[in-house]
């Protein structure tokens, strides 16, 4: 059933369809910035980022090429594109973190994640990005683990989000690390893979 057909359906069916699509797209819910960030929330987010490469490796373990080329939801990225998207995103996050730590309120560069995911490197074997995540997260965690409470308040400016802090960034990528692994683990649960 395509979204374009929804006008012909009763409102209840459209509502149920939209709810199901939102659930598939946001398996752990959408990102919500906590109103105040405690040391415990910082630790939890950094732990989620640290654990992510191993969790992603486990999430795709044993999948065939045909399974890797299956969309995780109707109209969504394939499992392979999801795996390659994460280092696209996290390389940007790592650079933004280092800019925020070394410059005064830097403006960071947004990128078109959908267009990135259509470039030919998104068709590489997933092992390439799993190795990249191992190395990148080792570097990222080395920086995150050394942050002081003062550092977490350092500002950066994102043209699409507005004024944010390192705290906001860390919470975002703690969520993001769990979000994309869940796309794959939920697909495997639904498909019985
Ligand atoms: Ni993402």
Task: Give the tags.
193 residues, Four Helix Bundle (Hemerythrin (Met), subunit A), two-stranded antiparallel sheet, binds nickel (II) ion, 2 strands
| Number of distinct beta strands | 2
Bound molecules: nickel (II) ion
CATH architectural group = Up-down Bundle
Spans of at least 5 consecutive residues whose pLDDT stays below 50 are none
Structure, described:
The protein has eight helices and two strands, in the order αααααααββα. It is mainly alpha-helical and 193 residues long. The protein has one domain: Four Helix Bundle (Hemerythrin (Met), subunit A), CATH 1.20.120.450. A hairpin with a 3-residue loop joins strand 1 (155-158) and strand 2 (162-165). Helix 2 runs antiparallel to helix 6 (126-145). It is globular, with a radius of gyration of 18 Å. 25% of the residues are buried. Residues 85, 89, 176, 180 line the site of nickel (II) ion.
Per-chain topology:
Blueprint: H1 11-25, H2 39-60, H3 65-68, H4 79-102, H5 113-116, H6 126-145, H7 149-152, E1 155-158, E2 162-165, H8 166-191
Antiparallel strand pairs: 1-2
Helix pairs in contact: 2-6, 2-8, 4-6, 4-8
Bound molecules: nickel (II) ion (NI).
Short description:
With 193 residues, the chain is mainly alpha-helical.
